[in-house]
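Reproducibility note. Readers wishing to regenerate the assembly model reported in the main text can use the exact inputs given here. Chain order matters: entities are listed in the order in which they were concatenated for prediction.
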Amino acid sequence: MVEMEPSHQRLRRLLEPIHERTLVFARSVSRSRDEGDDLLQESLLRALDKISTLRDDAAFKGWLFRIIINLHRNRSRRSFWKRLLPLIGNEVSDNRAHDETLGSVERARIALGKLPADQREAIVLHDIEGWAVGEIADLEGVSMSAIKSRLSRGRDRLRDIYTRRFGVRESLVPKEDTP
Amino acid sequence: MTNTVDNTIARDLKSLGENSRRDIPALDESLRTTDAYRDDRPGAEARRNALAEDRRRELVLMPLTLAHVFAHRIGRIAAGGVAIVVSAVLMVMVADPLLMRLAAWVVPGLNVGMLILLAALVILKAYVIASWIAEAWFARRMRAAIKTGADAYQDLEHLAQGPIDIAQRAVRRLDGWSVGLFLAGTASITLVFGYIVLIVGMNHTLSHAWSMIGILETGALERNVGALACAVLASSAVAALVGRACARESTELTSTIPRALGSWMALIGIVMLYNMFHLAVGIRHRLPSNELRYGLALGATISIVIPLAWSLLFWRRREHARIGE
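Running the prediction on these inputs yields the following structure tokens for the assembly.
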């Protein structure tokens, strides 16, 4: 009779090779490092709870990233309603966005925070984590053209935020087409 | 060559990546905390209670517009579906004069006016009843969204989605269907009744304008049923395309078809409508050839579908503004 591997041992074994990547992703899409750590923690909790439903170990990476993405979207939606209904939450004011002396990490976090969750995830996965468009499309369960469109719209919006809010000026050199 | 803004963004994203890679805790540390959370039952219950309180407050403050839009969208889906069924039944009756005679025998003095009135009543009733049912379902679903049970962990999972998220998703899911089915239904029924009114009007004097008895003898109605079927199928295909584009737009945020139909394309429809009206008046004096009849059916489809789609998409934009999308 085959002995069943306990859930936490299985999670540990599967998480080991991708632990750093998941944490980097969670930290980069969140509004702060602590929030990112918390996001990964909650994702691992959910993963531990549901790991018995995962049949194929090879699919673990995509499965765990999908959990992180779903939780991240839930949190993004929640914070939208907290901003709209200030009685419910204690959202921090974002006046810092107008400061032109911000450090590059903080500036990137504020700008990414202004994007819709799907565009933010696509940009972090592609530009920071180095995933291919096809891999992101498989992960999100959408077409490659949809991911390309998210990347393009997200970059346009980032350019707009950097120009308008952070006062970064366009140079006179013509812009090169991005892939 | 890249410009300054792109360089700054690339540099900042790189810095963010490097910052995120710093101080990565050991794997065991992450998992130990996970285990600690699992055993923290009182903590989970406290978090569940706080979250449930937030969700209840969220439900109290939820804009009523979401419920209204949901109910109206369901109503439109039902009305569109019934309109499609009614136009299909009418087309079968037009294709087979025996059925039409049977209907005239069951309802003595059956005429076009009565048919239009009956169809309008059935469609309106479907709209009202479906809206009522949708409102009741929506209220029950919202109550279920904030319900808690004995298992704190299960409740935390369940409460992770707030009532506003659930309502917005439900409303968004209906978007494509409410546009597509309603457009297909309205276009089909307008085409079928437009055709019947045109043929009956051509064959009768004003005093008998709405009577259908004489027209059955001439067989004029069933003679053009092929062109009519083509027009109805074409309008349904366009409606399916527009509905699909709207459904995709709710996830992808931009789509060419709703944007085009919602703007200048509507002008083409209005011009076609005007021309088709003149053509229909002209047919009274000279009967068109068989090929021209199919052309007329296609023209009628375009002239009906485009202004209808424009109106529907205009209404949809208003709904989106009301629910804050």
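We highlight two features of this model. Helices of chain A lie at 7-15, 19-29, 33-50, 60-84, 104-113, 117-128, 133-140, 144-164. Confidence is low (pLDDT under 50) at residues 86-100, 172-179 of chain A.
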